[in-house]
UniProtKB/TrEMBL annotation:
Protein name, UniProt field: DUF3817 domain-containing protein
Stored InterPro entries: DUF3817_TM (IPR023845)
Membrane disposition: Multi-pass membrane protein
Principal cellular location given in the protein's record: membrane
Regions that span the bilayer: 6-27, 39-63, 69-88
Organism: Paenibacillus arenilitoris
Compartments, record wording: Cell membrane
Record keywords: Cell membrane, Membrane, Transmembrane, Transmembrane helix
Entry annotated with the keyword Acyltransferase: no
Length: 97
């Protein structure tokens, strides 16, 4: 799975999606309800790094697989939606096979 550009995008996308959910559903409540701002700093930093890797992986797939600009835009928009990377992963799995 890590040997192809699509496989790398899928893995990084899943990790980025999980980190986004952790940030929204665990770290943010800890910050505001339990007065633990470090949770957001840690989860936010990890999510930020994974987001950048996701964007780079998306650009790599765009170049290697000659995706249309619409398809690339859809992949980038998915990163901003809480469950977007998981929905995109299903589509990428079909394309990878």
């Amino acid at each position: 799975m890590l040997k192809t550009a699509l496989g790398r995008l899928r893995i990084v996308g899943l990790l980025e999606g999980i980190s986004f959910l952790v940030l929204l559903l665990i770290a943010m409540p800890l910050k505001y309800w339990a007065d633990m701002p470090d949770a957001v700093m840690i989860a936010g930093s990890l999510h930020g790094a994974l987001f950048i890797l996701y964007m780079l992986a998306g650009l790599h797939v765009w170049i290697v697989h000659r995706w249309s600009i619409g398809k690339v835009a859809l992949a980038f928009i998915a990163a901003f939606l809480p469950f977007g990377p998981f929905v995109l992963d299903r589509k990428l799995l079909r394309e990878e096979k």
